[in-house]
Amino acid sequence: MEEMNKQKEEEKEKKRGFLFLIEDKNKRLYKLIFALILVIAIFSVGTYAWFTSNYTVKVQQIDVTVSGGSGIQISTDAENWKSMITIDDILNHAYAGAVNQVPKETDQMNPVSTVKVAYADATAKTQGLHMYRGTIVNDVNDGTMYLDSASETDSANNFNYIAFDLFLKLDFKESEGPKQLYFTSGTGVKAGNPNTHIEYASRMGFVVNGTQPSSSDLTTLRNIKGAENVFIYEPNYDVHTSNGLANGRDNYHITGRTVSGNATPAQYYGVKAAFAYDPDDATNFPGTPLDSTDANKFALVEPDFKTTAANSSDFEFMTLPVGVTKIRVYMWIEGQDIDCENTASGGQVQYNLGFKLQEQP
Fold first, then answer.
1. Of all residues in the chain, what percent carry a pLDDT higher than 70?
2. Which of 51, 109, 191, 316 is deepest in the core (most CB within 10 A)?
3. Residue 340 is assigned to a structural domain of this protein
């Protein structure tokens, strides 16, 4: 029996190969300035919202490439400006005090949730998003599912989600004014192989901390902090799996959606606070249903950008001022999304992020 179990485990390990994807340079759009490819594999089975028990997301391979277009440069430390940066720059060549977290091959990710409000940590160099890790709790008395929420902190050793600082320098005269920054058509989250559609529950977030003149000293540039704008991007909003639809119906009371062709994103309430459930002390620690809209614990999230699964067009991001702009980037699996459920595990997904300047006439 032990030998049979060993053989089964070996076969499983063989299937847990990784997908290494690199953007074809010949397919890059003319003024692409940022391209990120992230491949993650998820291993679990089940039928519940979020991921129950110890089900996690395993990162198999990450490749980050940033290539500069005319008039713009990129940096992870506001000092060494390049036309291209890599994952090594993000993890090993950031400025002192930066908190960049990108999972490695052996690390584990978990679904988290957030709302569109900047997190003003007084000790941090950058304002970001406040993430919360959810846990499903079954009431021992009646089996009802409740949600526990624990606060997450950006940390180099926290791999439940991805976060890093990025500096963009727009090299134009002030008289030439700001330029429109676009996401390229390749931006989004795609399925890998095998395909379980966890990409339907993925999100990206951007906290724009502010801009200073390029002539500013290094300390001033690195300490840009202010959260001028917060944006959330939802790719693949128009599609769901049948299990995701069942999760939406049974746990969130969301009906009327189909597996494809939905005209709007599914409504969801992101987690905005930490809370716990204790069946023995329900007065102080009451149960919080998954479909709760308690304003002390949740907030409706309306994405600033959304694309269909078949999107093939560039779309506008923001007006990029002349000077140096600091942006904190987030990527995560949204636990409150109806497609975040255990049967979405076992596959691979690919995060692609691309920026470009508006074409000049």
1. 78
2. 51
3. yes
